[in-house]
Design brief:
The structure is a single chain. By secondary structure, this protein is an alpha+beta fold. 35% of the residues lie in helices and 17% in strands. The chain contains eleven helices and ten strands. The strands form three sheets. The protein has a four-stranded mixed sheet, sandwiched between helices. The radius of gyration is 26 Å and the shape is elongated. It starts with a helix and ends in a 20-residue tail after the last strand.
């Protein structure tokens, strides 16, 4: 028990746990590394048992995209999962034709709760499992994304799940502002690809009112930081400077350009941060004029924002977003 408690406290991801399969053999959940998981405690004589009819199509729809359902029968709720795991598996295949893996019966609450479930509950909150068919969505990084109760609709789970299994959506959801970088230069060809994605962003009437300057000269970056007497760009090894017309306009197009570049960088394992404060400092500080001169910005343009870019040396958590500000007009 002490060893299991230590494991629960020290585990960094779902991959740190070992469970028994339907043949009683130990299975490391590290075998599912890189996959999106839906972990479910199930029962065969429950009012929610027909949820198998929703789970199997979900599995079939997304399995090829790296999605797995891990089924853990549990007899703690109304004794509604009687019989051996072999009998349970036979029932599920005969009645619901399931193809996702089922594991040996476990406890999910109490002193005999499996360490996996102790960890899942601690990560997602919500206290003890309330009933059969509670679900945990786990991302490709092995960390819990969300907990769902028995009555939560599969459609809601699928909407959250798509953010993980769809590579474009997961890339968007994974992007964070990076303010700490490794001392490692960014390859020129990657910067070229990122900028190409940027300039192919939507532009009203295809006016393309922006201009872009990519700073790879690390001595120039170091010199302007020295002149400013501080690190203006979080010690990033490269910068992408975006300019818009000095008389106004072009901001929307420039924003679309920047978002494309940040998402492209994220997909390549690079981090970015969109910086406005350093721009205001640069244009108002005479000691930094040499930096702006090197950018060779036309007189009828102004520096709008700078993207710091490099290999991240941190993994910030996502900050909450206020979904209440969104209204759907139907």
């Amino acid at each position: 028990m002490a060893m299991m408690s230590v494991l629960t406290m020290t585990a960094q991801s779902v991959y740190d746990f070992t469970v028994k399969d339907d043949a009683g053999k130990d299975v490391s959940l590290a075998e599912y590394k890189g996959k999106v998981l839906l972990i479910v405690n199930t029962a065969t004589r429950c009012g929610f048992t027909p949820q198998y009819k929703d789970l199997e199509p979900l599995y079939q729809k997304y399995h090829a995209q790296g999605f797995e359902i891990l089924d853990f029968p549990c007899n703690q709720f109304g004794q509604q999962a009687p019989g051996t795991i072999q009998e349970i598996h036979q029932f599920c295949t005969a009645n619901y034709d399931i193809h996702f893996p089922q594991f040996d019966k476990i406890d999910v609450n109490g002193e005999n709760a499996h360490p996996l479930y102790t960890w899942l509950k601690a990560q997602a909150g919500g206290g003890d499992i309330k009933w059969n068919f509670t679900k945990f969505l786990v991302g490709r990084d092995g960390k819990v994304i969300k907990r769902y109760e028995s009555r939560d609709q599969i459609a809601a789970i699928e909407a959250d799940m798509q953010m993980e299994v769809n590579p474009v959506l997961s890339n968007m959801m994974a992007r964070r502002s990076i303010r700490k970088y490794l001392n490692k230069p960014v390859e020129h060809e990657k910067l070229e690809a990122i900028v190409k994605c940027g300039i192919n962003a939507p532009s009203g009437m295809n006016r393309q009112p922006w201009i872009v300057r990519v700073v790879e000269d690390q001595k120039l970056i170091a010199d302007v930081n020295q002149a400013a007497e501080r690190s203006l760009f979080y010690d990033a090894p490269a910068l992408i400077c975006v300019c818009t017309p000095a008389n106004g306009g072009g901001e929307l197009d420039a924003g679309l350009l920047g978002e494309n570049m940040m998402l492209a960088a994220q997909s390549m394992g690079l981090g970015t941060c969109c910086l406005g404060g350093p721009v205001r400092f640069l244009v108002s500080n005479e000691k930094c004029k040499f930096f702006l001169d090197r950018l060779d910005i036309p007189a009828d343009y102004k520096l709008n924002y700078i993207l710091s870019i490099g290999y991240p040396d941190e993994q910030p958590d996502a900050k909450p977003r206020d979904a209440s500000k969104v209204k759907y007009i139907k």
